[in-house]
Design a protein that fits this description.
Layout lengths: L4 E10 L2 E11 L4 E5 L6 H9 L6 E6 L2 E2 L5 H7 L1 E4 L11 H11 L4 H14 L1 H5 L10 H13 L5 E5 L7 H14 L11 E5 L3 H7 L2 E6 L2 E7 L5 H8 L2
The protein binds adenosine-5'-triphosphate and magnesium ion.
Adenosine-5'-triphosphate (ATP) binds next to helix 1.
């Protein structure tokens, strides 16, 4: 089976401390992979080595057939890696439209290409089109999450990376985000392939509902992985439960 993203023996340090101790992880085209683990085990750090916000100390990261671990963040983004950081990072004082247009500027999209990218996002999240003139800060948590995902999708990524999309969102809306993720994978990308999703998530039921496979991270290394249907209560108890 082909591989879209492959991390091999990835080690990374923050302020001189070893945070990642040989992470092994794979995402195949079109699949949803959950990266799970308790607070502080290195989930966000793993994502930062993929997007380029943090250098790897040793190890390799291959995306779409090419080593990317020495490339700049914006180059990796243009190769097809979309990123929604923890806490979503939308601009609260700018309107929904301005938030989206910033995404277009960052990705260097203009003219008809930009208009088509925006239309795709409105089709996916009609509520954003209704709220174009509203400030990002007045949207509900679920709507802000849609805005952040929509902005990342403007680049037409092959891989969408989400860091704890359900964090700080009320239970009734979490289900909507799950529906959104399930919907995302059914929408063909412009080149006809499906979108792959790498999701950092601590909420086990949410992972069971949306993911195909999982990786459990503990103290900077993968301690268990497999089909989400094979995630045992034992693994949840030992490595995931708070
Ligand atoms: N800027 C930083 N300076 C120092 N230590 C850091 C920094 N960022 C992260 N760390 C440490 O690195 C470790 C891994 O952090 P990371 O953010 O990857 O955890 P996480 O699994 O994403 O946790 P959470 O679920 O709380 O988001 C933690 O022990 C954290 O304290
Ligand atoms: Mg984190």
């Amino acid at each position: 089976m082909s591989t879209l993203l492959h991390l091999q023996s990835v080690e990374a340090d923050i302020s001189g401390s070893r945070i990642l101790r040989g992470v092994e992880l794979e995402v195949r085209p079109g699949e949803v992979v959950a990266l799970m683990g308790r607070n502080g085990v290195g989930k966000t750090t793993t994502l930062k080595t993929i997007t380029g916000l943090l250098p790897v100390r040793t190890g390799t990261i291959v995306f779409d057939g090419q080593p990317i671990h020495r490339l700049a963040t914006d180059v990796r983004a243009r190769l097809g890696i979309g990123y929604v950081p923890q806490g979503r990072d939308i601009f609260p004082h700018m309107t929904v439209e301005e938030n989206l247009r910033i995404g277009l500027v960052v990705h260097g999209r203009k003219g008809p290409e930009a208009a088509a990218a925006l239309e795709r996002v409105y089709e996916l999240f009609p509520v954003l089109k209704e709220m174009l003139g509203r400030k990002g800060g007045v949207l509900s948590g679920g709507q802000q999450q849609q805005l952040a995902i929509g902005r990342a999708l403007l680049l037409d990524p092959k891989l969408l990376i989400l860091d704890e999309p359900t964090e700080g969102i009320q239970p009734s809306i979490i289900e909507q985000i799950g529906d959104t993720l399930r919907r995302l994978r059914t929408i063909p990308r412009s080149d006809g392939t499906g979108l792959a999703i790498l999701l950092v998530e601590q909420y086990v039921d949410f992972c069971r509902a949306v993911a195909d496979r999982y990786y459990a991270l503990d103290r900077g290394a993968v301690v268990s992985s497999g089909a989400i249907a094979d995630l045992t209560d034992e693994v949840v108890r030992v490595h995931l439960q708070v």
